[in-house]
Amino acid sequence: MHLDPELFAAIHGMELPADFDRKKTSGFEDDPECAEYNPCASYSHNPPTGLVVPRGKRYRHVCPGCGKVQFVRSLNVSC
Ligand SMILES: [Zn+2]
Fold first, then answer.
1. 60 within 8 A of 69, measured Cβ to Cβ
2. 9, 13, 54, 71: which sits with the fewest CB atoms below 10 Å from its CB?
3. What's the pLDDT score for residue 59?
4. Rounded to an integer, what is the distance from CA 8 to the centroid of its chain?
5. Three-state secondary structure call for residue 35
6. Separation of 48 CA from ligand 1 center, angstroms?
7. What confidence tier does 74 reach under pLDDT thresholds 50, 70, 90?
8. 45-62 in b/e burial notation, b at 16+ Cβ within 10 A?
9. How many A from CA of 66 to the centre of ligand 1?
10. What's the pTM value of the predicted model, to 2 decimals?
């Protein structure tokens, strides 16, 4: 999740350029506040906890309810 430029600037006490383009056009867009929320009620929406992923591998978990794909990465890999 990346930070909103305005929020980032506020946190770091920076000023945004005067011509900072807050909104280019009207319309719907992703609300970062809601990005974490998912109405899916599937019992296996999230990958199983305690999954051990071998080094160099990742586990692809596809929710059978909504089809959201999540990856579980090896704890040994920091990239
Ligand atoms: Zn789901």
1. yes
2. 13
3. 93
4. 17
5. coil
6. 13
7. confident
8. bebeeeeebeeeeeeebe
9. 4
10. 0.47
Residue with tokens 């906890």: 49
Q: Which helix (H) or strand (E) holds 73?
A: strand 69-73
Tell me the backbone φ, ψ of residue 45, rounded to 5 degrees. Answer: -65, -45
Distance 27 CA to ligand 1 centre (A): 26
For 33, list phi and psi in degrees, rounded to 5. -65, -30
Per the CB < 8 A criterion, the answer to whether 52 and 75 are in contact is: no
Q: In the chain, helix, strand, coil percent, each to 5?
A: 15, 15, 75
Q: Residue 55 and residue 78: Cα distance in Å, rounded?
A: 11
CA of 70 to the centre of ligand 1 (A): 10
CA of 43 to the centre of ligand 1 (A): 8
